[in-house]
Amino acid sequence: MRLQNKKAIVTGGAGGIGRATSLAFAAEGAAVAVVDLNAAAAEAVAQEIRAAGGTAIAIAADVSSEADIERVVATTVDGLGGVDVVFNNAGIIRRTTAVETSVEEWDRVFGVNVRAIFLMCKHVVPIMAGNGGGSIVNTGSGWGLKGGGQAISYCASKGAVVNMTRALAIDHGPQGIRVNSVNPGDVNTGMLRDEARQLGQDQAGFLAEAADRPLNRMGEPEEIAAAVVWLASDESSYVTGSALVVDGGGIA
Ligand code: NAI
Predict the structure, then answer these.
(1) Whole-number Cα distances in Å, 131 to 33, 73, 84, 134, 140
(2) Cβ(189) – ligand 1 distance below 6 Å
(3) Dist CA 125 CA 212 (whole Å)
(4) Residue 84 to residue 61: CA distance in whole angstroms
(5) How far apart (Å, rounded) are the C-alpha atoms in residues 218 and 208?
(6) What sequence ranges are listed for the domain Ketoreductase (predicted)?
(7) What does the pLDDT look like over 79-103, one tens digit per residue?
């Protein structure tokens, strides 16, 4: 029970990695606010946690909206009694080059992947600081560290996540707040299947390519969740500003 008595917010909590992490947080004793654009799916995850004897609430929100983020933080404080852990994980991808990307799509990707993390930290850091500290984990990507093809806005946004994480760690370490990024390789979620669709590629072939790495398979959401639990817990008490790569050795 590495997160006993902790109160956690998970954004994108209804999706592949977010759902697995919400369940893992609850299994470690945390009360969880499952935040997602998809209200019904968020409620289903919260119900799954409650059915297993845990504590969870679902909050429907668009994380790119400041009003929604303020409501998420207030509802969590009211409903769970505080915030000790935040997993800023909601994200979207557009598989297009710079030439193919509209300004609106660029702004949407940055709104969800980058501005949302800034907004969450803006509103949650004062609460954590007033409570002696906390742990924030942001979802970057292997492509935020090394780049990738046909995903210009995504790669730029995830690079921003990695460096924003370092800047947050510097600013708020003295307040007892640790901030780290987890950087997955290809993980078996709806996002990968959506990428195949966006690129007009055969899904099986796309997934087979995703498995082409030293460990010879793509990751499972639970394997990212395990790393996030560690970063959220006191086991990682001297780790901040780090970019933890969890990618099966996706070196190239
Ligand atoms: P997913 O598509 O399964 O889940 C994403 C969740 O975020 C969905 O439930 C969706 O409804 C929610 N969401 C999207 N926009 C939102 C918004 N504006 N407000 C609130 N919720 C919103 O994707 P997955 O794979 O679980 O992705 C989670 C994170 O992991 C993302 O940040 C993604 O970029 C990152 N990632 C995923 C990789 C993969 O291979 N699946 C690889 C590297 C990073």
Answers:
(1) 18, 14, 8, 8, 27
(2) yes
(3) 39
(4) 20
(5) 8
(6) 6-195
(7) 999 999 999 999 999 999 999 999 9
**Active-site choice (25, 87, 143, 154):** 154
Taking the C-alpha atoms of residue 115 and residue 64, their distance in angstroms, rounded to an integer, is 6
Task: Compute the C-alpha angle 205/144/30, nearest 5°.
Answer: 95
Atom of ligand 1 nearest to the CA of 187: 40
CB of 178 within 8 A of CB of 138?
no
Instruction: DSSP for 39-99, please give it.
Output: HHHHHHHHHHHHHTT--EEEEE--TT-HHHHHHHHHHHHHHHS--SEEEE---------TT
**pTM score, two decimals?**
0.99
Phi-psi region of 22 (alpha: psi -120 to 50; beta: other; left: phi over 0): alpha
Determine the atom of ligand 1 nearest the C-alpha atom of 64. Answer: 18
**What is the predicted ipTM?**
0.99
Q: Cα(30)–Cα(80) distance, rounded to whole angstroms? A: 10
Q: In the annotation, is 154 catalytic?
A: yes
Q: Are 18 and 42 in contact (CB under 8 A)?
A: no
For residue 10, list its beta bridge partners: 34, 87
